[in-house]
Write a structure and sequence with these properties.
InterPro entries: RNF213
Shape: elongated
Organism: Balaeniceps rex
Radius of gyration: 14 Å
Number of strands: 0
Distance between the termini: 20 Å
Number of helices: 4
GO biological process, one term: sprouting angiogenesis
Helix content: 40-55%
GO molecular function: ATP hydrolysis activity; ligase activity; ubiquitin-protein transferase activity
Keywords: Ligase
Length: 80
């Protein structure tokens, strides 16, 4: 949710890193973001769950990758 929220607000996500147990927004805003970005017009709860699970795995792997660390790659992969 935090990534999607910042993306919609136009923030540079290259330097953002999720902090465990940090809370932003409210449940209604979170659901709205997931519905907006899941890519399905009228998703079921199962489809929303799969979307959030997949997005979470991808973002966790991205944060753990040295190739996505702006301090390591500096400006060589700008916008990647």
């Amino acid at each position: 949710f935090q990534y999607l929220r910042r993306f919609d607000q136009g923030y540079n996500l290259d330097s953002f890193c999720y902090e465990a147990h940090s809370v932003e927004g409210n449940p209604a805003e979170c659901l709205q973001q997931f519905l907006l970005h899941c890519g399905i017009t009228d998703p079921s709860w199962s489809e929303l769950r799969n979307f959030t699970w997949f997005l979470n795995v991808q973002l966790r792997d991205c944060e753990a990758s040295v190739f996505c660390n702006p301090d390591f790659v500096q400006d060589t992969l700008q916008g990647f």
